[in-house]
Design a protein that fits this description.
Elements lengths: L1 H14 L4 E5 L3 E3 L4 H7 L8 E5 L3 H4 L25 E9 H11 L8 H11 L5 E2 L3 E3 L14 E3 L3 H17 L11
Parallel strand pairs: 3-5, 6-7
Antiparallel strand pairs: 1-4, 2-7, 3-4
Length: 186
């Protein structure tokens, strides 16, 4: 999976002229109507954007060493017992500059099986700190329509729910006009 993410970023860098890359899982809803509008309003340094849902739990920071585990990483691949902070693979946003730096550095830092942690390790080695954002979140049926003026990525969305989420996102623009549009990551 680490190679897949790197290959996707490398292709995007060489084939697309874009300021940002969004990596998500295939069971995520991306709030396409909101994302470009939100990014245009950002004041963050575009050369250092690596933003997503950063988990701070001990469990996520522990390196899995158990042989046979999908996420097992040997001491030779990564010797520390803990990972630095990293964005969950449900979705994270990278500026083109950060993506280029990550891909370039990956040529000297061999990938290991936990692709989300691997991207975090690369970023950490390059001095890029992930920005935590609740705009990248787990799907929950208790959200209101106006929440779709806030969310950028929702996780655990089935194929059947994708069109419903898009409909809610488009409706939110009309029905929630009185809501403040937040321009921060949180």
């Amino acid at each position: 999976l680490s190679y897949k993410v790197l290959t996707g970023l490398n292709w995007g860098i060489s084939a697309c002229s874009v300021p940002f890359f969004l990596k998500t899982d295939d069971d995520c809803f991306v709030n396409v109507p909101l994302l470009p509008r939100f990014l245009r309003m950002q004041q963050a340094d575009p050369d250092s954007i690596y933003v997503g849902n950063i988990a701070f739990s001990e469990e996520r920071s522990d390196v899995v060493r158990k042989p046979g585990s999908k996420w097992a990483v040997s001491y030779e691949e990564y010797s520390p017992s803990k990972y630095p902070s990293y964005a969950s693979g449900i979705g994270y946003l990278l500026s083109c500059e950060v993506a280029q730096r990550l891909v370039k550095f990956s040529k000297v830092y061999k990938p290991f099986p936990n692709e989300d942690a691997y991207i975090g390790v690369l970023a950490n080695e390059l001095g890029i700190r992930p920005i935590h954002s609740y705009r990248f979140t787990l799907f929950n049926s208790r959200w209101t329509i106006c929440n779709f003026l806030y969310f950028l990525v929702l996780h655990h969305v089935t194929l059947e729910q994708q069109s419903e989420m898009m409909h809610l996102s488009l409706q939110a623009k009309e029905q929630c006009k009185s809501q403040n549009f937040f321009t921060s990551w949180n």
